[in-house]
Each structure stands twice: as C-alpha cells, then as structure tokens.
Amino acid sequence: MQDTMTDMQRLLMNVAEQLKSGQKTDRSAAIKDLRRIADLATTLASTIEAQR
After folding, report:
1. What is the domain partition of the chain in residue ranges?
2. How far is Cα 20 from Cα 9, in angstroms, rounded to an integer?
C-alpha cells in the first residue's frame, strides 16, 4: 500500500511539472499520468474495501 501511495505522489509531482511547461507533448504525458493515478487509486480503494 505504501508503494502505491509513493507512486501516486511521484506521478502527481510529474503532472504538476508537465502542466507548467504548457507544451502539447507534456500535456499528453500529464493526461497519461493522471489516468495512471486514477487506476492506482481505484485498485487501492478496492484493496482497502476488501480488507474491511
């Protein structure tokens, strides 16, 4: 679980940097990273829910 949170934090920092640049390729990368964060969050939520 901690690894997932670390990955999400790293990806979010990447997104912030990518959006600051304003370049189209960086915006595309930001979208990709945001989708990955969403996937990780969904998986983490399911894992936590299953442990209840």
Report:
1. 2-51
2. 17
| Beta-carbon contacts of residue 1 (< 8 Å; ≥ 6 apart) | 44, 47, 48
Sign of the Cα pseudo-torsion (35, 37, 42, 47, in order) = positive
Of the candidates 40, 42, 16, the one whose C-alpha atom is nearest the C-alpha of residue 29 is 16
Q: Can you give the pTM of this predicted structure?
A: 0.88
Give the tokens for residue 7. 């990955």
| Residue bearing tokens 């189209």 | 24
| pLDDT, tens digit (0-9, with 9 covering 90-100), for 5-20 | 999 999 999 999 999 9
